[in-house]
Amino acid sequence: MTAATRRWLAAAFVALFAVWMLAPAGTPIYDGIGNPDEPYRFVKPPPTAKTTKAPTAAKAIVAVRNGLSGAQFANSAELGPQISVYVPPGALQVPAGATTMTVTATPLAPTPPLPSDGTITTNVYRIAAAAGGQPVQVIGRGNQEPSVQMRSATAAPSGPVFERRTATGWQRLKTTRVGNDVYQTAAATFGDYALVQPAHPAQAKKSGGVNVGLLAGGLAILVLTFAILGIRMRRTRRVGP
Fold first, then answer.
1. Are residues 201 and 164 part of one domain?
2. Is 82 helix (H, G, I), strand (E, B) or coil?
3. Is the distance from CB of 90 to CB of 68 less than 8 angstroms?
4. In what helix (H) or strand (E) does residue 59 lie, and over which residues does it extend?
5. Coil, strand or helix: which one is 89?
6. Mean of the per-residue pLDDT values for the chain?
7. What is the Cα–Cα distance from 189 to 170, expressed in whole angstroms?
8. Helix (H) or strand (E) holding 125
9. What values do phi and psi take at 190, rounded to 5?
10. Which residue from 43, 68, 62, 61 is spatially nearest to 53, judged by alpha carbons?
11. What is the count of structural domains for the chain?
12. What is the rounded CA–CA span in Å between residue 55 and residue 79?
């Protein structure tokens, strides 16, 4: 292999690394080829929704080892799950003497006060953790912060955003679209979460998700790099011994 070929191979790997860095890191856990989602199950179906089975709650037991909470997923039982909560290692405060903790996500019908900036389009899910009947708080930050994924009732182009109920109303959260109808947010604290369709669709576009422009640009660079590499290698073979 000539020095020129080695240089172009190195450039190709750099371009591939750039695409990896530009593409979002979220992995859809619900969508799958040949395995379509079942209709959304509402606690209180809207007039336009079909009658379905009752939604299910998510529940998981989190082990405690060496005084730290372990990693665990809590998924509801629908196909695909309407909610999934991921608890990374060390994310939960461990009460003295606790050996396990329970994480739950319970579906509820939306109740007042409702968001003032849009309409709740899913169930409200009350996410909580407990040990020995006592609430457990989230202490993890950064990579140790829990994450929540919820499936939307529809796959609208201008999708919903996550909001969390607070003492003063609903708070909009940074939202990433990680699947056809699946959205993700970080959970610095547990409580009531829902997907809300903003009153103004443009607001949803600012909430995060796949940066199509950056991804397309990275892919274009990668394709161009390999095209140039192919031309150079053919020229090298023609002029070689």
1. yes
2. coil
3. yes
4. strand 58-65
5. coil
6. 82
7. 14
8. strand 124-131
9. -85, 170
10. 43
11. 2
12. 11
- Name the one residue in this structure whose structure tokens are 């593409």: 23
Residue 173 exposed, middle or buried by CB count within 10 Å (0-12, 13-18, 19+): buried
Instruction: Please tell me whether residues 42 and 57 are part of one structural domain.
Output: yes
pLDDT one-digit tens code per residue, 92-127? 999 999 999 999 999 999 999 999 999 999 999 999
Find tokens 């939202």 and name the residue: 175
Cβ atoms of 219 and 176 within 8 Å: the answer is: no
Together in a domain, 182 and 151: yes
Same domain, 149 and 225: no
pTM score: 0.72
Maximum separation of any 2 CA atoms in the chain, in Å: 80
Q: Tell me how far apart the alpha carbons of residues 82 and 105 are, in angstroms, rounded to a whole number.
A: 10
Tell me: the pLDDT tens digits for 183-221? 999 999 999 999 999 997 665 544 444 444 444 555 555
At 17-28, the pLDDT tens digits run 444 444 444 444
Distance CA 136, CA 104 (A): 11
The DSSP output letter for 180 is S
Contact 80, 152 (CB under 8 A): no
Rg over CA atoms, the chain: 23
CA atoms within 13 A on the CB side of 164: 17
